[in-house]
Design goal:
Number of strands: 10
Mean pLDDT: 91
Strand order of the largest sheet: 8-2-9
Number of helices: 4
Distance between the termini: 21 Å
């Protein structure tokens, strides 16, 4: 595995969902807030936040929908299905357009380390090497 960079995470929801359910002010408010989840029904990825003292705060959403596709999650969030914690790069444009709003900014989500995983370095095709270099540069330019 080769470390490529860090992906900044954000908790987002649509303006229509916020108008209907209010805007959560604390991580504890998420317990009663509609959520969609990333993963499978057997294993939903928890949402991790950083508290005021740097402590880790973990929220286990109880989603009404679970998908393991970031694009589908973003689109469902835009349509008001629930809040979701996504990589910033996957929802930045939707936030800039006003389709999604970032929530709980005083509790920044924990960043996620991203790795390129490949079977072996020996005999690695040039295309794989170039792809890894491209992804590494992309992560550097994002953050």
């Amino acid at each position: 595995a080769r470390p490529l960079g860090v992906s900044r995470m954000v908790l987002v929801a649509s303006p229509s969902l916020l108008a209907q359910h209010g805007t959560p002010a604390e991580v504890a408010d998420l317990a009663s807030f509609p959520a969609i989840g990333q993963g499978t029904l057997e294993s939903v990825r928890p949402w991790a936040f950083t508290g005021a003292d740097g402590e880790l705060i973990v929220h286990h959403p109880e989603p009404k929908m679970v998908v393991d596709n970031i694009v589908a999650l973003r689109e469902a969030a835009i349509r008001g299905a629930g809040a979701i914690q996504l990589p910033w790069d996957s929802c930045r444009e939707a936030v800039e357009r006003g389709d999604l709003r970032v929530l709980l900014e005083k509790y920044p989500p924990m960043d996620v380390r991203v790795y390129g995983v490949y079977p072996t370095r020996r005999g690695m095709p040039a295309a794989v090497r170039v792809l890894l270099e491209f992804l590494e540069e992309r992560f550097r330019s994002l953050y």
